[in-house]
TrEMBL record, chain A:
Organism name: Thalassovita taeanensis
Transmembrane region(s): 16-35, 42-61, 98-123, 190-216, 237-258, 270-298, 310-328
Broad class of the protein's primary localization: membrane
UniProt keyword Oxidoreductase present: no
Keywords assigned by UniProt, alphabetized: Amino-acid transport, Cell membrane, Membrane, Transmembrane, Transmembrane helix, Transport
Record's bilayer topology term: Multi-pass membrane protein
GO BP terms: amino acid transport
Family to which this protein belongs: Belongs to the binding-protein-dependent transport system permease family. LivHM subfamily.
UniProt keyword annotation of Membrane present: yes
Identification of the protein by name: Amino acid/amide ABC transporter membrane protein 1, HAAT family (TC 3.A.1.4.-)
GO cellular component, one term: plasma membrane
From TrEMBL, chain B:
Coiled-coil regions, chain positions: none
PANTHER family, per the entry: LEUCINE-SPECIFIC-BINDING PROTEIN, PERIPLASMIC BINDING PROTEIN OF ABC TRANSPORTER FOR NATURAL AMINO ACIDS
Signal peptide limits: 1-30
NCBIfam families linked: TAT_signal_seq
Record-given protein name: Amino acid/amide ABC transporter substrate-binding protein, HAAT family (TC 3.A.1.4.-)
Length: 343, 448
């Protein structure tokens, strides 16, 4: 029982990441009709926003300490972050410690700008081209983006820890009346789950309860009619691209303490997120979220030793297996609109 | 009056035959027909450095390349000479190799066997490289070693830790300076016993490829021999990034030690997940839960950040060693690049110097002469104390370091501390040890 609860929790945080990335992907597909293979790169850039802010906050000046030596035996250079000298050691250290949550604010304008530049500078030229062309160009863009990141940040993962207040684990066992220390779960992963729920809720609320969102939803349903009403739907869809980029970026920012950011992390999530979108139903926002959590949990369960002893290697194929079954039995996906991608 | 039969045609014929006869010995010994691949003919000799310049181990590759550049500089008489000053063999004079200036070309392995073979082939066939060195993966090392054997080129392996490189996949033209998984187990086990006791239950997470398998086998054998139990061994895909679903079952498995047979990004991510799940703070079977990372690298320790603190592992070498060779190398490298060298850098530097020295001692670039010079060669002054290149399998034997993540690093490079320098005798094994069984060294191949 405890193992099952643990794997459900695992699946929830993994599913949160899948859901957030898939939400942006399906938002872009639903509005612009573009299959964006560079979406994983946006998630990766979000993570590197956290790395960048952390580096900025750690910018330091050097002083020579004659009492200590460096690895070559020369007097040691002691680095003191500017922020500690400006705000005092304690406040400065606290600000540095909270670099990842602060990166949320830092990343939003950056990600929206990147989204705008991407859409206006490249992707808009491919709206009327076949999906294969869109996939090729956005995949190429993803490779360029990850190589740029590798050039500036190197190939190795960069540790970007959560604030001290969120390190450690929460004892679910004690909460549920089971033995203590049996079901423990990292605080930051719980934060990630809660954060993704807020973001997903925010996106749905934005689309559901604002005039802008209503126009976008109308455009998704019937672009031509909305255009005939004199509404510049293209402009709104560009804004939605920026919003999708920001959602992927925020998913990446908060994921940085879970897995140290590296230039390749976007690609690791991209394929799985596409499967999530297909399973959920191309263009269906609730489908993307549902499939994200469902596949995250299934993936976690398939990693259990008991399951793997019955079906060796099942953890590697479970997501694709589910995708095949769904596509065979319900080609439009779990919550896809009738007629979309059913050919 | 005598009559001679001399004719113009006869003189030409006789002259041609005699000339050819006289020229034959010269022809046979001419450099261009010296009987081995890429025999250097001019005033230079070209070495090929095949390192990961792209892909997940690009940072290791960059450090290897720095070391190669430094070694070439020292061989050509530049810089402060580095470990040439402390090396026990004095065959190298700082005038290149046998008076030929050392040039080098580089290739990108991409940490993919096929790409590594292609770049090594290109360096051999197009650039005339006479020796190939470098790499940051056992899969790559085994692939390139096989290619060099076929081509008649010496392969001086870089970072490769699988037992197979000098075990079932060993080749006469290949030499490994780096230690291996068996040695990690032999060095770590006594320290683990001393610090954590003899009654421990270990849970292994193992990267699902040749290096992971041999390391798991080696560590499990070494720890079981001192009384530990192996509770489970779970293979994890190489492409895995989030290890939480593999870590969660550890919590209630009854294990009190987690052994992470992971390297690179896998190690950083699995260790991070293990720490996040509170394993370091857990008590099982009345003992503190411990995590072990059998193969450490400085660059990966940096990636893991604070999670590495207090965790035991092993390395081939450390810049913090205090022998004269290490100090000379760290000074050269640190002065040139501004930071201390990694394990991988030291191995690549040492391999280049060892190759050049073998050529100088043999008095020939012929791979078979080089093999003969390197086999059963004992030396000192390149770090790790007295070192022995065993002829039976071309594996180097030297002291192995047991390291621990430092609790209070003094600076950004001061991440690992030496717990114990395990003497060479403790990590040696017979060439026909079962973990290294299969395959044959074969005969050296001089190539063309």
């Amino acid at each position: 029982m405890d193992a099952i609860i643990l794997q459900i929790l695992n699946g929830l945080d993994k599913g949160s990441a899948y859901a957030l990335i898939a939400l942006g992907l399906t938002l872009i597909f639903g509005t612009l009709g573009v299959v964006n293979f560079a979406h994983g790169a946006l998630f990766m850039i979000g993570s590197f926003c956290a790395v960048t802010l952390s580096k900025i906050l750690n910018l330091s000046f050097e002083t020579i300490d004659p009492t200590r030596t460096d690895f070559l035996g020369n007097p040691a250079k002691i680095k003191t972050p500017y922020i500690e000298s400006w705000f005092g050691p304690e406040t400065g250290a606290a600000i540095i410690d909270w670099a990842v949550p602060l990166s949320i604010l830092f990343s939003i304008p950056i990600m929206i700008s990147i989204g705008f530049i991407m859409e206006r500078g490249l992707i808009k030229h491919f709206y009327k081209r076949p999906h294969a062309d869109q996939i090729l160009v956005t995949f190429g863009l993803a490779i360029v983006l990850q190589e740029v990141i590798k050039y500036f940040y190197g190939a190795n993962p960069i540790p970007t820890p959560a604030p001290d207040a969120f390190r450690g684990s929460f004892d679910f066992g004690a909460l549920l009346g089971i033995d203590p220390n049996v079901i423990i779960y990292p605080y930051w992963r719980l934060v990630y789950f809660a954060f993704s729920a807020v973001i997903i809720g925010g996106v749905f609320a934005f689309l559901q309860f604002t005039t802008f969102g209503m126009v976008v939803r109308a455009g998704m349903a019937d672009r031509e009619t909305v255009g005939l009403l004199g509404i510049n739907i293209d402009k709104r869809f560009t804004i939605m691209f920026g919003l999708a980029a920001a959602v992927a970026g925020l998913a990446g920012v908060m994921y940085a303490p879970i897995n140290s950011p590296n230039y390749h992390m976007g690609m690791d999530f991209l394929v799985l997120s596409f499967v999530v979108v297909v399973v959920g139903g191309m263009g269906s926002l609730p489908g993307a979220v549902l499939a994200g959590f469902m596949l995250g949990i299934l993936e976690s369960f398939s990693s259990m030793n008991e399951i793997k002893s019955l079906f060796p290697g099942i953890d590697q194929i479970i997501i694709y297996l589910v995708a095949i079954i769904i596509l065979l039995t319900r080609p439009r996906g779990l919550m896809g609109r009738k007629g979309v991608m059913e050919d | 009056m005598s009559k001679t039969n001399l004719t113009r045609r006869g003189v030409l014929k006789t002259g041609a035959v005699a000339g050819a006869g006289l020229a034959l010995p010269t022809y046979l010994s001419a450099a261009s027909h010296s009987g081995f691949t890429n025999a250097p003919t001019g005033s230079t000799v070209t070495l090929g450095f095949n390192v990961p310049q792209t892909g997940p181990y690009a940072d290791e590759g960059a450090d290897e390349l720095r070391a190669f550049e430094l070694a070439v500089e020292h061989l050509n008489g530049g810089g402060d000479g580095g470990m040439l000053n402390t090396f026990s063999s004095k065959a190298l004079q700082g005038n290149g190799i046998m008076g030929k200036e050392v040039k080098y070309v580089t290739g990108d392995t991409q940490t993919k066997s096929d790409a590594a073979r292609a770049s090594a082939k290109s360096m051999i066939e197009k650039d005339g490289a006479i020796m190939i060195s470098g790499g940051s993966s056992s899969g790559v090392a085994v692939a390139v070693q096989g290619l060099c054997q076929e081509a008649g080129i010496i392969f001086m392996a870089g970072l490769t830790h699988s037992n197979d490189t000098t075990g079932k996949d060993k080749k006469a033209n290949g030499f490994r300076h780096f230690f291996n998984a068996y040695m990690s187990g032999a060095a770590l086990a006594p320290v683990l016993q001393k610090l954590y006791g003899s009654e421990r239950r270990a849970y292994h997470l193992t990267a699902d490829y040749t290096w992971g398998w041999t390391q798991q086998e080696s560590i499990a054998a070494a720890t079981e021999a001192m009384g530990w139990q192996t509770v489970n061994n779970v293979l994890t895909p190489l492409a895995q990034t989030d290890f939480s679903s593999y870590i969660a079952p550890v919590l209630n498995s009854g294990a009190d030690v987690l052994v992470l047979n992971h390297y690179g990004g896998n190690m950083v991510n699995s260790l991070t997940a293990a720490v996040q799940f509170g394993l370091r703070d857990k008590q099982v079977n009345g003992k503190n839960f411990e995590i072990v990372v059998p193969l450490y690298s400085e660059l990966m320790a940096k990636g893991a950040g604070a999670n590495i603190k207090g965790i035991l592992g092993s390395t081939n070498w450390s810049w913090t060693l205090q022998d004269e060779g290490t100090k000379a190398f760290v000074k050269s490298f640190g002065t040139k690049y501004g930071f201390p060298p990694s394990n991988a850098a030291q191995t690549c530097y040492a391999q280049t110097i060892l190759y050049a020295d073998a050529v100088a001692r043999a008095g020939s670039f012929n791979p078979c002469a080089v093999v003969e010079a390197l086999e059963d060669f004992e030396f000192d002054g390149l770090g790790n104390g007295k070192t022995f290149y065993r002829g039976a399998d071309h594996q180097c034997f030297k002291d192995v370091l047991v390291m621990r993540g430092k609790e209070n690093p003094a600076n950004e490079y001061d991440l690992l501390e030496i717990v114990e320098v395990t003497p060479r005798g403790q990590v040696e094994y017979a060439p026909d040890h079962p973990m290294f069984a299969g395959g044959a060294l074969g005969a050296c191949n001089p190539g063309a």
